[in-house]
Amino acid sequence: MKESFPVQNRMIEEPKAPQESEVKKLTLDEIESGLKYSQNTGRLLEQAYWEDERNKYFKALKEKSSDIVEEKPKRVEGPEYTELKDYLKREQREISRPVIEEAKRKRDQLLEARGILSMSKADFDTYFLSKEFEVRADLKQQNVGDCYLVAAIHAMSRSPHFETICRSSMKRLPDGSWQVRVPLMSEDGQMITITPEELLPQKNRQFLRRSEKGGIMPDLRRKLMPVKGKEGLQVLEAAFIKQKFGSLDRLAAEGGWGDEVLLSLGGDNFKEYSIDSTTWNPEKEKWEYPGLGSLDEKNMAYLDHYLENFDPEVHMATVSTKHSKISKVVGFYKAKGTTAKFLVPGHAYSISGVDAEKKMVNLANPWNTSKPIELTFDQFKENFSGFNAIRIDSAKLLSSMRNVAEKKAA
Amino acid sequence: MEQDNQKTINPHELAKAFETQIKVIVSEKFSIAPDDLELLLEDEEGVYLSQEESDTLCCFVVGQKNGFLYLVTAKIEENGKILDNFKSDIVS
Q1: Cis omega before residue A312 (within 30°)?
Q2: Closest in A55, A94, A271 to B88, CB measured
Q3: ipTM reported for the complex, 2 dp
Q4: Which of A358, A359, B16, B35 could be A377's S-S partner, Cβ–Cβ 3.0 to 4.6 Å?
Protein backbone atom coordinates (compact mmCIF):
# COMPACT_ATOMS: atom_id res chain seq x y z
CA MET A 1 0.00 0.00 0.00
CA LYS A 2 1.32 3.37 -0.92
CA GLU A 3 0.86 6.01 1.70
CA SER A 4 1.34 9.69 1.85
CA PHE A 5 2.44 11.38 5.01
CA PRO A 6 2.17 14.90 6.28
CA VAL A 7 5.16 16.89 5.23
CA GLN A 8 3.71 20.30 5.65
CA ASN A 9 3.38 21.72 9.09
CA ARG A 10 5.86 24.53 9.19
CA MET A 11 5.11 28.18 9.20
CA ILE A 12 7.22 30.62 7.31
CA GLU A 13 8.07 33.56 9.44
CA GLU A 14 7.37 36.81 7.75
CA PRO A 15 10.73 38.39 7.13
CA LYS A 16 11.25 41.39 9.26
CA ALA A 17 11.67 44.57 7.28
CA PRO A 18 13.67 46.83 9.52
CA GLN A 19 12.23 50.31 9.62
CA GLU A 20 15.04 52.09 11.37
CA SER A 21 17.48 52.06 8.49
CA GLU A 22 16.04 55.22 6.99
CA VAL A 23 16.86 57.23 10.08
CA LYS A 24 19.79 55.39 11.56
CA LYS A 25 23.02 54.77 9.67
CA LEU A 26 24.05 51.18 9.96
CA THR A 27 27.65 50.23 10.43
CA LEU A 28 29.30 47.71 8.13
CA ASP A 29 29.56 45.29 11.05
CA GLU A 30 25.84 45.54 11.71
CA ILE A 31 25.09 44.97 8.06
CA GLU A 32 27.48 42.02 7.76
CA SER A 33 26.08 40.54 10.94
CA GLY A 34 22.50 40.87 9.69
CA LEU A 35 23.44 39.44 6.33
CA LYS A 36 25.23 36.49 7.88
CA TYR A 37 22.27 35.73 10.11
CA SER A 38 19.80 35.89 7.24
CA GLN A 39 22.05 33.65 5.12
CA ASN A 40 22.46 31.13 7.91
CA THR A 41 18.74 31.01 8.58
CA GLY A 42 17.75 30.97 4.91
CA ARG A 43 15.62 34.11 5.22
CA LEU A 44 15.65 35.26 1.66
CA LEU A 45 13.91 38.56 2.03
CA GLU A 46 16.04 39.58 4.94
CA GLN A 47 19.06 38.54 2.91
CA ALA A 48 17.97 40.77 0.03
CA TYR A 49 17.41 43.60 2.49
CA TRP A 50 20.89 43.29 4.00
CA GLU A 51 22.52 42.94 0.60
CA ASP A 52 20.75 46.11 -0.42
CA GLU A 53 21.94 47.86 2.74
CA ARG A 54 25.49 46.78 2.01
CA ASN A 55 25.10 48.10 -1.54
CA LYS A 56 23.99 51.44 -0.15
CA TYR A 57 26.81 51.47 2.36
CA PHE A 58 29.48 51.05 -0.32
CA LYS A 59 27.76 53.53 -2.62
CA ALA A 60 27.71 56.09 0.16
CA LEU A 61 31.36 55.39 0.86
CA LYS A 62 32.21 55.88 -2.78
CA GLU A 63 30.30 59.16 -2.93
CA LYS A 64 32.04 60.38 0.17
CA SER A 65 35.46 59.79 -1.28
CA SER A 66 34.65 61.39 -4.61
CA ASP A 67 36.30 64.70 -5.46
CA ILE A 68 33.45 65.87 -7.63
CA VAL A 69 31.87 68.88 -6.03
CA GLU A 70 28.22 68.85 -6.71
CA GLU A 71 25.07 68.47 -4.81
CA LYS A 72 24.82 64.92 -3.85
CA PRO A 73 21.82 63.21 -5.29
CA LYS A 74 19.31 62.00 -2.81
CA ARG A 75 20.08 58.62 -1.43
CA VAL A 76 19.09 55.99 -3.94
CA GLU A 77 16.33 53.96 -2.52
CA GLY A 78 16.63 50.20 -2.57
CA PRO A 79 14.36 48.28 -4.83
CA GLU A 80 10.77 48.16 -3.74
CA TYR A 81 9.45 44.69 -3.60
CA THR A 82 7.15 45.45 -6.50
CA GLU A 83 10.33 45.85 -8.52
CA LEU A 84 12.17 42.99 -6.91
CA LYS A 85 12.01 40.76 -9.94
CA ASP A 86 13.54 43.43 -12.14
CA TYR A 87 16.16 44.08 -9.52
CA LEU A 88 17.07 40.42 -9.37
CA LYS A 89 17.09 40.14 -13.14
CA ARG A 90 19.62 42.95 -13.40
CA GLU A 91 21.96 40.66 -11.58
CA GLN A 92 21.64 38.09 -14.31
CA ARG A 93 23.44 37.63 -17.57
CA GLU A 94 25.88 40.11 -19.01
CA ILE A 95 28.15 37.49 -20.55
CA SER A 96 26.93 35.47 -23.54
CA ARG A 97 25.35 32.09 -22.91
CA PRO A 98 28.05 30.04 -24.78
CA VAL A 99 30.74 31.60 -22.60
CA ILE A 100 28.72 30.88 -19.45
CA GLU A 101 28.19 27.29 -20.58
CA GLU A 102 31.91 26.99 -21.22
CA ALA A 103 32.55 28.36 -17.73
CA LYS A 104 30.29 25.72 -16.22
CA ARG A 105 32.25 22.99 -17.95
CA LYS A 106 35.49 24.51 -16.69
CA ARG A 107 34.07 24.76 -13.18
CA ASP A 108 33.26 21.04 -13.23
CA GLN A 109 36.79 20.23 -14.38
CA LEU A 110 38.10 22.45 -11.61
CA LEU A 111 36.02 20.67 -9.00
CA GLU A 112 37.13 17.32 -10.35
CA ALA A 113 40.77 18.38 -10.23
CA ARG A 114 40.47 19.51 -6.61
CA GLY A 115 38.91 16.38 -5.21
CA ILE A 116 40.75 13.23 -4.31
CA LEU A 117 38.08 10.66 -4.84
CA SER A 118 37.67 7.64 -2.63
CA MET A 119 35.31 5.82 -4.95
CA SER A 120 36.48 4.69 -8.35
CA LYS A 121 34.69 5.78 -11.47
CA ALA A 122 33.92 2.13 -12.17
CA ASP A 123 32.23 1.70 -8.77
CA PHE A 124 30.21 4.85 -9.30
CA ASP A 125 29.06 3.60 -12.70
CA THR A 126 28.18 0.21 -11.23
CA TYR A 127 26.33 1.32 -8.11
CA PHE A 128 24.72 4.59 -9.17
CA LEU A 129 24.01 4.63 -12.89
CA SER A 130 20.75 3.05 -13.99
CA LYS A 131 21.77 3.14 -17.60
CA GLU A 132 24.90 4.32 -19.28
CA PHE A 133 25.41 7.98 -18.40
CA GLU A 134 22.05 8.01 -16.61
CA VAL A 135 21.90 8.38 -12.86
CA ARG A 136 18.66 10.27 -12.69
CA ALA A 137 15.91 7.79 -13.30
CA ASP A 138 14.48 4.65 -11.81
CA LEU A 139 14.02 5.50 -8.17
CA LYS A 140 10.88 3.98 -6.74
CA GLN A 141 9.72 4.63 -3.21
CA GLN A 142 8.39 1.43 -1.73
CA ASN A 143 6.11 1.02 1.28
CA VAL A 144 7.92 3.38 3.63
CA GLY A 145 6.52 6.90 3.98
CA ASP A 146 9.76 8.67 3.18
CA CYS A 147 8.69 10.38 -0.03
CA TYR A 148 10.56 13.51 1.10
CA LEU A 149 13.80 11.50 1.40
CA VAL A 150 13.50 9.76 -1.97
CA ALA A 151 12.53 13.06 -3.60
CA ALA A 152 15.59 14.74 -2.09
CA ILE A 153 17.93 11.99 -3.26
CA HIS A 154 16.45 12.23 -6.73
CA ALA A 155 16.87 16.02 -6.69
CA MET A 156 20.51 15.57 -5.66
CA SER A 157 21.13 13.05 -8.40
CA ARG A 158 20.18 15.70 -10.96
CA SER A 159 23.21 17.76 -10.09
CA PRO A 160 26.30 17.43 -12.27
CA HIS A 161 28.22 17.63 -8.98
CA PHE A 162 26.52 14.46 -7.77
CA GLU A 163 29.21 12.10 -9.06
CA THR A 164 32.03 14.14 -7.55
CA ILE A 165 30.21 14.54 -4.24
CA CYS A 166 29.45 10.82 -3.96
CA ARG A 167 32.86 9.65 -5.09
CA SER A 168 34.60 11.86 -2.58
CA SER A 169 32.42 10.89 0.38
CA MET A 170 31.33 7.29 -0.16
CA LYS A 171 33.25 4.08 -0.45
CA ARG A 172 32.20 0.47 -1.02
CA LEU A 173 34.35 -1.95 0.97
CA PRO A 174 35.36 -5.44 -0.23
CA ASP A 175 32.84 -7.10 2.14
CA GLY A 176 29.99 -5.22 0.45
CA SER A 177 29.45 -2.68 3.21
CA TRP A 178 29.65 1.06 2.62
CA GLN A 179 31.25 3.96 4.37
CA VAL A 180 29.53 7.30 3.93
CA ARG A 181 30.73 10.58 5.34
CA VAL A 182 27.74 12.73 6.34
CA PRO A 183 27.50 15.58 5.50
CA LEU A 184 28.95 14.61 2.17
CA MET A 185 32.10 16.56 1.33
CA SER A 186 32.54 17.66 4.91
CA GLU A 187 36.00 17.10 6.34
CA ASP A 188 34.51 16.70 9.82
CA GLY A 189 31.56 14.63 8.70
CA GLN A 190 30.39 11.62 10.66
CA MET A 191 31.44 8.33 9.08
CA ILE A 192 28.36 6.10 8.75
CA THR A 193 28.73 2.41 7.93
CA ILE A 194 25.96 0.66 6.05
CA THR A 195 26.13 -3.12 5.94
CA PRO A 196 24.56 -5.24 3.17
CA GLU A 197 22.05 -6.57 5.73
CA GLU A 198 20.84 -3.04 6.45
CA LEU A 199 19.82 -2.66 2.83
CA LEU A 200 17.49 -5.65 3.03
CA PRO A 201 13.74 -5.47 3.80
CA GLN A 202 13.20 -4.81 7.48
CA LYS A 203 10.69 -6.39 9.84
CA ASN A 204 7.92 -3.91 10.72
CA ARG A 205 7.47 -3.70 14.49
CA GLN A 206 4.14 -1.95 13.93
CA PHE A 207 2.75 -4.82 11.84
CA LEU A 208 -0.99 -5.27 12.52
CA ARG A 209 -0.94 -2.49 15.10
CA ARG A 210 -2.98 0.65 14.84
CA SER A 211 -1.17 3.92 14.38
CA GLU A 212 -0.47 5.90 17.52
CA LYS A 213 -1.93 8.90 15.70
CA GLY A 214 -5.32 7.19 15.52
CA GLY A 215 -7.24 5.62 12.69
CA ILE A 216 -8.92 2.29 12.50
CA MET A 217 -6.77 0.55 9.95
CA PRO A 218 -3.91 -1.50 11.33
CA ASP A 219 -0.52 -1.34 9.68
CA LEU A 220 -0.56 -4.15 7.13
CA ARG A 221 3.06 -3.87 6.11
CA ARG A 222 4.89 -6.96 7.28
CA LYS A 223 8.21 -5.66 6.03
CA LEU A 224 9.55 -2.20 5.32
CA MET A 225 11.37 -2.00 2.03
CA PRO A 226 14.29 0.20 0.97
CA VAL A 227 13.85 2.50 -2.00
CA LYS A 228 14.00 0.55 -5.24
CA GLY A 229 16.96 1.70 -7.26
CA LYS A 230 20.68 1.32 -7.63
CA GLU A 231 22.57 0.25 -4.52
CA GLY A 232 24.40 3.55 -4.10
CA LEU A 233 21.10 5.41 -3.94
CA GLN A 234 19.76 2.92 -1.38
CA VAL A 235 22.88 3.58 0.65
CA LEU A 236 22.19 7.31 0.62
CA GLU A 237 18.65 6.66 1.90
CA ALA A 238 20.02 4.40 4.63
CA ALA A 239 22.80 6.82 5.58
CA PHE A 240 20.37 9.69 6.14
CA ILE A 241 18.12 7.51 8.33
CA LYS A 242 21.01 6.12 10.33
CA GLN A 243 22.59 9.51 10.81
CA LYS A 244 19.33 11.08 11.97
CA PHE A 245 17.92 8.30 14.12
CA GLY A 246 21.06 6.48 15.25
CA SER A 247 19.92 3.23 13.66
CA LEU A 248 18.39 2.22 10.39
CA ASP A 249 14.83 2.64 11.63
CA ARG A 250 12.68 3.03 8.50
CA LEU A 251 9.51 3.46 10.54
CA ALA A 252 10.99 6.43 12.37
CA ALA A 253 11.93 8.04 9.07
CA GLU A 254 8.32 8.33 7.90
CA GLY A 255 7.29 11.94 7.34
CA GLY A 256 9.77 14.74 6.92
CA TRP A 257 11.13 17.53 4.80
CA GLY A 258 13.15 17.38 1.61
CA ASP A 259 15.30 20.36 2.47
CA GLU A 260 16.20 18.76 5.80
CA VAL A 261 17.61 15.80 3.86
CA LEU A 262 19.48 18.02 1.43
CA LEU A 263 20.94 20.12 4.24
CA SER A 264 21.78 17.04 6.28
CA LEU A 265 23.56 15.34 3.37
CA GLY A 266 25.06 18.50 1.91
CA GLY A 267 25.94 20.29 5.14
CA ASP A 268 27.08 23.84 4.76
CA ASN A 269 27.88 23.27 1.09
CA PHE A 270 24.18 23.92 0.59
CA LYS A 271 22.12 26.99 1.41
CA GLU A 272 18.46 26.70 2.15
CA TYR A 273 15.62 28.27 0.19
CA SER A 274 12.29 27.46 1.72
CA ILE A 275 8.89 28.92 0.96
CA ASP A 276 5.61 27.65 2.34
CA SER A 277 2.07 28.80 1.78
CA THR A 278 0.65 26.76 4.63
CA THR A 279 -1.16 28.87 7.20
CA TRP A 280 -2.77 28.19 10.54
CA ASN A 281 -6.39 29.26 10.76
CA PRO A 282 -6.96 30.07 14.44
CA GLU A 283 -10.75 30.33 14.02
CA LYS A 284 -11.11 26.91 12.48
CA GLU A 285 -8.10 25.65 14.42
CA LYS A 286 -6.60 23.85 11.48
CA TRP A 287 -3.87 24.13 8.88
CA GLU A 288 -4.85 25.44 5.50
CA TYR A 289 -3.08 24.79 2.22
CA PRO A 290 -3.98 27.53 -0.22
CA GLY A 291 -1.09 26.73 -2.57
CA LEU A 292 1.99 28.63 -3.66
CA GLY A 293 -0.22 30.81 -5.86
CA SER A 294 -1.44 32.52 -2.70
CA LEU A 295 2.02 33.73 -1.65
CA ASP A 296 2.40 37.41 -1.02
CA GLU A 297 4.22 39.52 -3.57
CA LYS A 298 7.58 39.28 -1.87
CA ASN A 299 7.66 35.51 -1.57
CA MET A 300 6.18 35.14 -5.03
CA ALA A 301 9.01 37.23 -6.47
CA TYR A 302 11.53 34.89 -4.89
CA LEU A 303 9.73 31.79 -6.06
CA ASP A 304 9.56 33.16 -9.61
CA HIS A 305 13.20 34.14 -9.46
CA TYR A 306 14.20 30.66 -8.33
CA LEU A 307 12.10 28.99 -11.03
CA GLU A 308 13.13 31.33 -13.83
CA ASN A 309 16.78 30.84 -12.99
CA PHE A 310 16.63 27.19 -12.03
CA ASP A 311 19.89 25.52 -12.89
CA PRO A 312 20.32 21.83 -11.97
CA GLU A 313 24.01 22.49 -11.56
CA VAL A 314 23.31 24.81 -8.66
CA HIS A 315 19.80 24.19 -7.46
CA MET A 316 18.11 21.20 -5.90
CA ALA A 317 14.48 21.35 -4.94
CA THR A 318 11.74 19.23 -3.48
CA VAL A 319 8.17 20.45 -3.35
CA SER A 320 5.05 19.19 -1.63
CA THR A 321 1.48 19.06 -2.77
CA LYS A 322 -1.40 20.50 -0.82
CA HIS A 323 -3.05 18.22 1.65
CA SER A 324 -6.47 16.98 0.79
CA LYS A 325 -9.39 18.65 2.58
CA ILE A 326 -10.55 15.14 3.29
CA SER A 327 -7.91 13.75 5.58
CA LYS A 328 -6.33 10.41 4.96
CA VAL A 329 -7.08 10.45 1.26
CA VAL A 330 -4.76 7.98 -0.36
CA GLY A 331 -4.06 7.88 -4.06
CA PHE A 332 -4.05 10.31 -6.94
CA TYR A 333 -6.21 13.28 -7.71
CA LYS A 334 -6.41 15.25 -10.91
CA ALA A 335 -4.23 18.33 -10.67
CA LYS A 336 -6.22 21.56 -10.81
CA GLY A 337 -6.01 23.37 -14.10
CA THR A 338 -4.88 20.30 -16.03
CA THR A 339 -6.69 17.79 -18.16
CA ALA A 340 -4.80 14.62 -17.34
CA LYS A 341 -2.11 15.27 -14.72
CA PHE A 342 -2.46 13.35 -11.50
CA LEU A 343 -0.88 14.18 -8.16
CA VAL A 344 -0.85 12.68 -4.68
CA PRO A 345 -2.03 14.94 -1.83
CA GLY A 346 0.44 15.72 0.97
CA HIS A 347 3.26 14.16 -1.02
CA ALA A 348 6.79 15.29 -1.84
CA TYR A 349 8.07 15.57 -5.40
CA SER A 350 11.44 16.57 -6.79
CA ILE A 351 12.01 19.23 -9.42
CA SER A 352 13.94 17.68 -12.30
CA GLY A 353 14.17 20.81 -14.35
CA VAL A 354 12.53 24.04 -15.38
CA ASP A 355 11.97 25.45 -18.84
CA ALA A 356 12.00 29.15 -18.02
CA GLU A 357 11.06 30.21 -21.54
CA LYS A 358 8.00 28.01 -21.72
CA LYS A 359 7.35 28.48 -18.01
CA MET A 360 7.15 24.76 -17.39
CA VAL A 361 8.25 22.82 -14.30
CA ASN A 362 9.38 19.24 -14.72
CA LEU A 363 8.61 17.15 -11.65
CA ALA A 364 9.26 13.59 -10.54
CA ASN A 365 7.11 11.54 -8.20
CA PRO A 366 9.27 9.43 -5.84
CA TRP A 367 6.94 6.52 -6.49
CA ASN A 368 8.49 6.37 -9.94
CA THR A 369 10.94 9.07 -10.89
CA SER A 370 11.33 7.86 -14.46
CA LYS A 371 7.94 9.28 -15.44
CA PRO A 372 8.21 13.06 -15.66
CA ILE A 373 5.27 15.30 -14.83
CA GLU A 374 5.20 18.65 -16.60
CA LEU A 375 3.19 21.52 -15.20
CA THR A 376 3.02 25.16 -16.16
CA PHE A 377 4.16 27.63 -13.51
CA ASP A 378 0.50 28.46 -12.79
CA GLN A 379 -0.52 24.80 -12.46
CA PHE A 380 2.47 24.20 -10.23
CA LYS A 381 1.61 27.10 -7.93
CA GLU A 382 -2.02 26.04 -7.81
CA ASN A 383 -1.31 22.47 -6.76
CA PHE A 384 1.78 22.72 -4.56
CA SER A 385 1.99 24.43 -1.20
CA GLY A 386 5.56 23.83 -0.05
CA PHE A 387 8.86 24.60 -1.75
CA ASN A 388 11.97 23.23 -0.02
CA ALA A 389 15.09 23.90 -1.95
CA ILE A 390 18.78 24.58 -1.65
CA ARG A 391 21.45 26.34 -3.63
CA ILE A 392 24.98 24.98 -3.76
CA ASP A 393 27.38 27.31 -1.99
CA SER A 394 30.26 27.29 -4.45
CA ALA A 395 32.76 28.85 -2.05
CA LYS A 396 32.03 26.21 0.57
CA LEU A 397 32.10 23.42 -1.97
CA LEU A 398 35.47 24.55 -3.30
CA SER A 399 36.78 25.00 0.20
CA SER A 400 35.43 21.62 1.30
CA MET A 401 37.04 19.92 -1.65
CA ARG A 402 40.32 21.59 -0.89
CA ASN A 403 40.11 20.56 2.76
CA VAL A 404 39.12 17.00 1.98
CA ALA A 405 41.98 16.74 -0.48
CA GLU A 406 44.50 18.17 1.98
CA LYS A 407 43.32 15.89 4.75
CA LYS A 408 43.63 12.82 2.58
CA ALA A 409 47.04 13.85 1.35
CA ALA A 410 48.31 14.38 4.90
CA MET B 1 47.79 34.93 -36.02
CA GLU B 2 45.17 34.80 -33.33
CA GLN B 3 46.28 31.30 -32.45
CA ASP B 4 49.88 32.46 -32.17
CA ASN B 5 48.85 35.22 -29.83
CA GLN B 6 46.90 32.87 -27.61
CA LYS B 7 49.85 30.50 -27.43
CA THR B 8 52.10 33.18 -26.03
CA ILE B 9 49.62 34.45 -23.47
CA ASN B 10 49.80 33.03 -19.98
CA PRO B 11 46.24 33.56 -18.72
CA HIS B 12 47.16 33.07 -15.07
CA GLU B 13 49.90 35.69 -15.19
CA LEU B 14 47.63 38.08 -17.02
CA ALA B 15 44.84 37.60 -14.49
CA LYS B 16 47.31 38.04 -11.65
CA ALA B 17 48.49 41.32 -13.17
CA PHE B 18 44.89 42.57 -13.41
CA GLU B 19 43.70 41.07 -10.13
CA THR B 20 42.55 44.40 -8.73
CA GLN B 21 40.50 45.32 -11.79
CA ILE B 22 38.94 41.86 -11.89
CA LYS B 23 37.89 42.17 -8.27
CA VAL B 24 36.57 45.68 -8.80
CA ILE B 25 34.28 44.64 -11.64
CA VAL B 26 32.64 42.01 -9.41
CA SER B 27 32.70 44.27 -6.40
CA GLU B 28 30.90 47.08 -8.19
CA LYS B 29 28.30 44.98 -9.94
CA PHE B 30 27.39 42.80 -6.99
CA SER B 31 28.20 45.15 -4.09
CA ILE B 32 30.77 42.95 -2.46
CA ALA B 33 33.81 44.15 -0.58
CA PRO B 34 36.91 43.33 -2.70
CA ASP B 35 38.54 41.67 0.29
CA ASP B 36 35.79 39.05 0.24
CA LEU B 37 36.70 38.01 -3.29
CA GLU B 38 39.28 35.45 -4.27
CA LEU B 39 40.56 34.67 -7.75
CA LEU B 40 41.16 30.99 -8.39
CA LEU B 41 44.68 31.55 -9.63
CA GLU B 42 46.06 28.31 -8.24
CA ASP B 43 43.69 26.13 -10.20
CA GLU B 44 44.62 25.26 -13.75
CA GLU B 45 41.01 25.72 -14.82
CA GLY B 46 40.57 28.81 -12.65
CA VAL B 47 41.76 31.09 -15.46
CA TYR B 48 41.59 30.24 -19.14
CA LEU B 49 41.26 31.60 -22.65
CA SER B 50 37.76 31.20 -24.01
CA GLN B 51 37.27 28.92 -26.98
CA GLU B 52 33.84 30.43 -27.52
CA GLU B 53 34.92 34.06 -27.92
CA SER B 54 38.24 34.98 -29.44
CA ASP B 55 40.80 37.00 -27.47
CA THR B 56 38.80 36.63 -24.29
CA LEU B 57 40.26 35.84 -20.91
CA CYS B 58 37.97 34.16 -18.38
CA CYS B 59 38.65 34.12 -14.68
CA PHE B 60 36.70 32.56 -11.82
CA VAL B 61 36.20 34.61 -8.69
CA VAL B 62 34.72 33.22 -5.48
CA GLY B 63 32.72 35.31 -3.03
CA GLN B 64 34.10 33.97 0.22
CA LYS B 65 31.16 35.14 2.31
CA ASN B 66 28.18 34.78 0.02
CA GLY B 67 29.29 31.56 -1.67
CA PHE B 68 28.78 32.68 -5.24
CA LEU B 69 31.13 31.69 -8.01
CA TYR B 70 31.56 34.56 -10.46
CA LEU B 71 33.01 34.64 -13.93
CA VAL B 72 34.87 37.70 -15.16
CA THR B 73 35.65 38.00 -18.84
CA ALA B 74 37.88 40.58 -20.49
CA LYS B 75 39.09 41.27 -23.99
CA ILE B 76 42.80 40.79 -24.49
CA GLU B 77 44.30 43.79 -26.24
CA GLU B 78 47.74 44.79 -27.48
CA ASN B 79 49.16 41.30 -27.83
CA GLY B 80 48.26 40.25 -24.35
CA LYS B 81 49.48 43.26 -22.47
CA ILE B 82 46.14 44.87 -21.71
CA LEU B 83 42.75 43.63 -20.55
CA ASP B 84 39.71 45.67 -21.48
CA ASN B 85 35.92 45.50 -21.63
CA PHE B 86 35.46 43.60 -18.36
CA LYS B 87 32.18 41.78 -17.75
CA SER B 88 31.04 39.67 -14.85
CA ASP B 89 28.22 37.24 -14.05
CA ILE B 90 27.30 34.64 -11.52
CA VAL B 91 28.10 31.10 -12.64
CA SER B 92 26.81 29.31 -9.57
Answers
A1: no
A2: A94
A3: 0.91
A4: A359
pTM recorded for the entire structure: 0.67
Q: Cβ of B30 and A106 within 8 Å?
A: no
* Alpha-carbon span A275 to A292, nearest angstrom: 8
Look at B60 and A396 and tell me if their CB atoms are within 8 Å: no
Question: Which of chain A's residues have a Cβ under 8 Å away from the Cβ of B48?
Answer: 106
B-facing residues of A in 260-299 (CB < 8 A) are 271
Which distant-in-sequence residues (6+ apart) come within 8 Å of B57 by Cβ? B9, B11, B14, B15, B47, B48, B49, B50, B73, B74, B75, B76, B83
CA distance B50 to B71: 12
Dist CA B31 CA B39 (whole Å): 17
pLDDT tens digits, A295-348: 988 889 889 988 988 888 788 999 999 876 654 445 666 777 766 678 888 899
Give the separation between CA A115 and CA A409, rounded to whole angstroms. 11
CA dihedral A294, A296, A297, A298 (to 10 degrees): -130
Query: Distance (Å) from the C-alpha of residue B91 to the closest C-alpha of chain A?
Result: 7
β-partners of residue A180 are A170, A192
Q: Are the C-beta atoms of A363 and A342 separated by less than 8 Å?
A: no
Rounded CA gap, A238 and A231, in Å? 10
Q: Hey, is the C-beta of A368 within 8 angstroms of any chain B C-beta?
A: no
Question: Is residue A188 a contact partner of residue A180, using CB atoms and an 8 Å limit?
Answer: no
Summarised one tens digit per residue, pLDDT across range A79-114 is 445 455 544 544 557 898 899 889 988 887 787 777
Task: Return left, alpha or beta for A297; rule: phi > 0 is left, psi -120 to 50 is alpha, else beta.
Answer: alpha
Average pLDDT, integer, range A386-392? 88
Per-residue pLDDT of chain B (92 residues; tens, 9 = 90+): 444 545 578 999 999 999 999 999 999 888 889 999 999 999 899 999 999 999 999 999 998 877 788 999 999 998 888 999 999 988 87
Q: What is the mean pLDDT of chain A?
A: 78
Q: Give mean pLDDT, residues A355-380.
A: 93
In the structure, how many helices (H) and strands (E) does chain A have? Answer: 12, 15
